[in-house]
Amino acid sequence: MGKTINMLVLLVLLVAGNCYAGSTNYVVRQLTFDDIDHDSVSASSSGEVIWTQDVGGYSQVFSMSLGQLTFDKWDHISPDVNSQGEIVYIKRLDDELPVVYSSLRGEVAKGDVALPRVNDDGEIIWREKRDLGYVFVSSIRGEVVIRPTQGADISNDGEIVYIGNSSTGELELFSNRKGQISSGLSGRTPRINNIGEITWEKEVTVGKKTFRQIFSNTRGNITEFFDGDTIRLGNVDDRGVVYFTGLKNGHFQIFSATPKETATMDETFVSKPGEEPVVETYKTPDNELFSAINKMDSFKDRSGPTLIISEPKDNSAVDGVVKISVFSYEQDSLAHCYLQIDEKYLGWDETPPFEFIWNTQYWRDGDHIITVVGHFEDSSNPTQVASVFVRSQNDRVMRPSLAILSPRNGETINGTITINTDATSDNFSYVYSEVDVGFKDWDNMPPYAFTLDTHSLPNGRHTIKVYGWHKQGGESVEDVVSVVVSN
Asked: What is the mean pLDDT of residues 279-284?
């Protein structure tokens, strides 16, 4: 009788047209069904999914739980997200130099940069072209991979997987700890989670037809069941769920493949084609559209926990320093939450009572949307979003500032010196130092000072830059001086 029931369940799933037969190891879900190409899908270790898609000629970042996240007239490329809600991506506009950008810290690096990744500890890596060729650079450790050919990824404990060329020119997958893992790759996106599973793309030939498939170092061919012509690997989270895009009906749609041993009943449900997620938008008097809440009706159990912003109230007027309080009837299971003002990350809290401070004097007067994203433990619907609409009214608007006190502009320096800064407040998430467009160091505690050994530089004129992301101001500020090294 049990076998008969299992066969009936399988038949129902196959008839639905959104699960794929042929895999005995995975439950597969199609997550998007619209007439839009979804590119560069990624997911955090806890399963928050983001991607890019075209909006008005610009590539913008989207989230399964929050909807559209970026709105400026730049292209946003290769996004990645960690479990803290920090999103990194490449910002690029026409002839401008590409920028590694963080939703938490602002600009991280600028130059010939690409393919950023971030782990849950906040370590960012990216590919950068330097004098001796391409390297992967870490925001903490400096150069970590020399002469990679394509992409890389990093786990929480610092293991880096990357693609390089063999002596025969074949693409090979390497780990900075395990050495060579696989050869004959066809994609540029190796991925690693925090339990040691590594995934990559590889072409497989069946008869006269060649397919791109996703492989795992622990599970072999993951996507042998998939009947699409093209597959692009997104990420693998800590449950072993693999996210990818596949070409269906002329557009790249997002899919997930969950190992059957960890799949829940929720993950065996597949939405019907045409059931698109509902995105609520609010229109301000300035004619700006803010994607406030993405209910994702097709993909989420609406009976999950409730998240409420108890103060300030919706449609209220605010000024000065505002306390933002978060409440849930399931407060004991609320693990952490983070705050966004107008889609800009401002803070993180993991200790009840969940409260944030927002200094509205650093923001323009007018309408703003406050969004809090909460993550619940032991819930079938772990991510919840709450938003309120407010209007700020201040007598004056403050501007965050960051200045280099020493060395002074035009000063001659030698030996080991200290780069001293002056900040308007201690509300900088991070402050970075850079010499000649090359990352040197970072600091997250005032008074934000850095050490520079001039013997690492050739004699002559050099540029020192400091920049940081101001948490209350929600913007990146910087200062630059020119110095002469004379060793």
From this structure: 29
